[in-house]
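Data card: per-record layout.
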Amino acid sequence: MIPAPFTYQRASSVDEAIDLAAEAGEDAKFLAGGHSLMPLMKLRLAVPDTLVDIGRIGELSYVSERDGHVAIGALATHDEIARSGVLAATVPLLADAAGRIGDPQVRHCGTIGGSLAHADPAADLPAVMLALDATLVARGPSGTREIAAGDFFLGLFETVLAPGELLTEIRIPRPASAGWSFQKFSKRGIDWAIVGVAVQGGNVGLVNMGSTPLRATATERELAAGSGPGDAAVHAAEGTSPSDDLNAPRAYREHLARVLVRRALQEAASRA
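The structure for this 272-residue chain is written out next.
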């Protein structure tokens, strides 16, 4: 399959990328690793007039500790995140989840910013961001703004990013609790999760349980009220709307959510 014709531009800095996108108008798209965008373009589900390649902007590739949080550049690859000593010591949930994405080729090319901006509810990292109470930093023609992860995802492949606005950094507060776990169930190790769960302390993020990544709010309320992992996990699917498709019917996904949340909460408790 062949994408529709488009104009290609390569940016060498964030400012240049924003300027190029502004010149191209609302039909411009930023290109990082390309693992999400290029397949959509080949299917002509995405038809951008202009691609602004940001893949070589070195200022967006880093993992560093700052006052009370970890800062991650949007172009940090899944492999870099998985192997980061900083994250292993401070936010092991993110390092573990990134190391289980796809295969080595995907992990070496795919970026954290691209995964979040693509906003696929079946992706692992958006739910991890919810569990970690992350803040996402975006820069555009109007300046820089900070967006809570819980406010970032609007719908299937839809975020609050405005046209020409670029996700530049992810900020994760140092977790108050050492307890964490990442669980997912898929047909093969390289496949998207049929259901996934990210737990950090009393926060529970769900993968592929709706049109956006979700928090298991009913389970979180039970935990806050003093319920144990088993009792809290019973409520994991409440308030969700999982799809009913060839990979799994809705009832099976709801069952998986309850099972995986229980396992994740038990594992997190053992690490606390």
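Known properties of this structure: The mean pLDDT is 95. Residues 7-53 form a domain with the Uridine Diphospho-n-acetylenolpyruvylglucosamine Reductase; domain 2 fold (CATH 3.30.43.10).

See the next section for split statistics.
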